[in-house]
Every structure is written in C-alpha cells, then in structure tokens.
Design a protein that fits this description.
Elements (H helix, E strand, L loop, with lengths): L1 H11 L1 E5 L21 E4 H5 L6 H12 L1 H7 L2 H10 L2 H13 L4 H10 L1 H7 L3 H9 L4 E4 L4 H12 L3 E3 L3 E3 L6 E5 L4 H8 L5 E6 L7 H5 L1 E7 L30 H27 L2 H10 L3 E6 L8 E5 L6 H9 L5 E3 L4 H6 L4 E3 L4 H14 L2 E3 L10 E2 L5 H5 L2 E10 L15 H6 L5 E6 L11 H16 L2 E2 L4 H8 L15
Parallel strand pairs: 1-8, 2-3, 2-7, 3-4, 7-8, 9-16, 10-13, 10-15, 11-12, 14-17
Antiparallel strand pairs: 5-6, 15-16
Helix pairs in contact: 3-4, 3-6, 3-7, 5-6, 7-10, 13-14
Amino acid sequence: MVVPMLLRFACSRVVRKLDSLSPTVAGGGGSWHGRDGQALVCDFEGALLSTTCTFPYFMLVAFEGGGLLRALLLLLWPLLWLMSRVRRESMMMRAMTFVTFCGLSAEAVDLVRRAVLPKFYLENLRLQPCELLAACTGRRVVVTAMPRPMVEGFLREYLGVSEVVAPELQVEEDRRRFTGFLSVFSRQKALEELFRESEADVAVLSPSNCHDHLLATYSKEIYVVNEEEAATALPRGKYTKPLVFHDGRLAFFPTPCATLAFFLWLPIAVPLAISRILIGTVLPYDLSFLVAAFTGFRFRLGGQLPAARKGVLFACNHRTLLDPVMLSAALRRPVPAVTYSVSRMSEMIAPVRTVRLARDRIRDAATIRRMLAKGELAMCPEGTTCREPYLLRFSSLFAEVADDIVPVAVETRVGTLHGTTASGRKWLDPVSFLMDPAPVYKVHVLTPMLPAGGRSSAEVANAVQRRIAEVLGFECTGLTRREKYLLLAGNEGVTAGREGEKQ
C-alpha cells in the first residue's frame, strides 16, 4: 500500500530537502517569500524539534511535576526502548505516558507545561523549519506523538500553530487527575477531518519520518529536513516571544544518559552541599575561598572594593539567595541584607544578618534608613530572581532612602540544578545551587553612583539597572515580580506568614 502511494507522490508532488542553501525555495539567505496565506502541515519531533527522542520531555514532566520517585521509575526507558524494538514503537510511548502521568494532577501538568517545557522546546527548535512555519501565514497544522497537554500550549503560544494533531490523555471523572492512559487515536482520521475540503500547500517531514505518506497525502509541496544543513538552532533573537521567565529545578536537558548521571551524582551532591555551607559559615573569608575551590566552587571578583563606611547601599541584581553572602565574601566583611521573603531555613544558615521587609513602602523605607544609619547594607531592587540574561524592573525604594549607592553586577552559572524556584520549596534554593558539581559566582563591584542631582528616584533606579545590564551584557525590562509569579506559579507571589505578615 505504501509503495504505490510513494510512487504517486514522486510524480505529482514536489519533494525537496529543507535547508538554507535551496535558492529555488529560500530567498535572501534563508528568508522565505511568497508564502503569505499558504497552509502548512509538519512533524514536531524531528522536523521543528532537532530530536525525535521524546524521553527528555517526559522526564521534565515526571521530575518537575511528579517528583524524584516518578522520575526514577521513568529511568526504565532502556527497557521500554528494547520493548519497542521487539514489538511496536507505540508501546514505548504508552509506557512512558503511563509512568509520567498516572495520578498526576492536571494543575501540576499545566504548571510544567507553562513554566518549564517552553525553555527546552525553544532551545531545541530548528531554524529553517521555524522560518518556513512563520512565513506560511495560513493554516498551520503540527503533528506530534506526545500527549496534547505537553505540547499544545507551547505550539499555539510560541509558534502560532492553529491546529495540533496529538493523542489525548484520559482523565478521572473529577477531571483533576490523569489516569496515564492514552485515548484511542488515529493520525489518519484526524488529518482527514482537518483536510477534508482542501490540501495544505507545504508539508515538512523529519528525516526519520520522510516516508510518512499521511502528511504528504494532504500537501502540494513536500520538504524533508536535511539533518546536516538544517541543524542550526533557532537563535534567541528570533523567538516569537522572549523567554524571560522559566521555572523548574533541572538546569540540563535530561537525556537518558544525562539523567542517569544526575541520579548517580545525587548521593555525592548532598554531603557536598552541606560541606560548602559549613565552609561559608565557619571559615574566615580568605581561607573559605581556597577550601571552596577544592570542592569545585568557582568565585570570580571584579571591580574596585570600597572601604567600609556608614550609609553605603549595595544595589545588586538578583540571581540567587546567596547574592548578599557572595557580596560579603567579595568585600571580606559581613554586610547585612534586607530580604522580601526567605525561608526560616535560609535565615538560619545565612552567615550574614538578614532583615525582612514587609512590602509596605513606608515601613520598609524606615527599616532601610535605620540599618543604613548603623553601617552598610545590601539590597536586591529586582525583588525576585531572574535566570535568563534579563534584568527586571528595579524598585525605586532604595534610591529614595540612600544617597551613597554602589551598583553590584552578579552573575551565576550552574549545570545541574537551579538555585531558584517560583513554585517549589524555597528552603531548597541555596542547597540546590550548592549541590552543583561546579557552580560559578561572579561579583563585579561598580563605581559608586553620583548624587541624584535633581533626578527622581525612578530615574536613579533605572540608571543603576542600565549600568549593571551593560556590565553583564543583559537586557533591561520593565517586568516585575508580580508578573513572574503570575506566569510561573499562578499567584502574585505573596503569602501569609506564620505571624500574619506578608512575605
């Protein structure tokens, strides 16, 4: 059945390799012309995505949405892979789906879909197929083997896809949890319903799926992704929607080998994090640098260190809860810090004094003035952390209460676990960062700001933000803490504390 169909396609369809060197298809060095209003149908895995292996995305859902135990169960992937070779490919997909989604709440899956998966999808998109997808402004249909809740939101929000052909996940009667079973699904029937009246103008197939007669049946022009020449990843500057916020603990793409290495590292990582905490809290600063370096911790210092004096406010961009600690290590003296919301655990292990702000402008201003009258103070005007190379809007409060402002540019790098979270357990933030095999902290102390000289506090705050952004090579934004938490956690990031205060 398939062979006669393919022979017919060879006679009646235009089949080309999709790459940046096709002058008959691409114009202007890879830009596509004359596609306005055209309809497109394409594969997700292997065509838009640079990989056909779906295991990493299931692992992200299992780990971030279901926890450590569920992720460990999913490590049976090699056995599932062998089963698929012996019997059917769909068996592996159904087994991974069951382990990942059985009993998982719809709310948890939606959170991972919204806050975690987009980053990993975007980093694995191919440039040329995405350019062709953007050029076809008509109907855009994407076919995927992954369950609909994992992909539909991303495809519609970030790529402007109009229709998604994907298996459906069964849910319990209350519709709050997934059963882990896939509904009966037929790609052929779904495509027949979508293209009942008209064909698509373009079909984009992955190399591993280039003989799929289903997509080719419903298109006039067929493109097969060239693995070698279409391997260019979609650059950040061409994202249709900037990726500023994302959540989740895993800082690496969890392929089977990388995930196995991660779980083998965990028994070593926990005592390593504890030893690093002890090094920072017990040893003097000069000695702690040397000892921490032997554990793999890398600290980089730049700029001129000012002498200690009263009334100095160090305005830092916010990367992790360890920012004030690393600033104190750089200055070789403890600098108190004001914080908006940290866990009791983080306050207990902090080697510097921390004072909570109440998110009440008048009260907070009085607290900061009182502390500045006693000595130096560290503050992160962003109010929350940002992992990507962006700076959030700086609150102008610090510029209202301090005349002697020293901007501090902070940058971090990890390869295993992120030291920040919006929806997870806050007390694990510094521990997660210190569990990394080779974390990097860079602190660059800039020259003090000149007096305001008639400028408003908002103008001073913006000037500090721009100076830090220039040093780090980051981009300034007007986004706030509230917007971050609404996207990543579904709340405004304000909870009632044990004593009724807002954290």
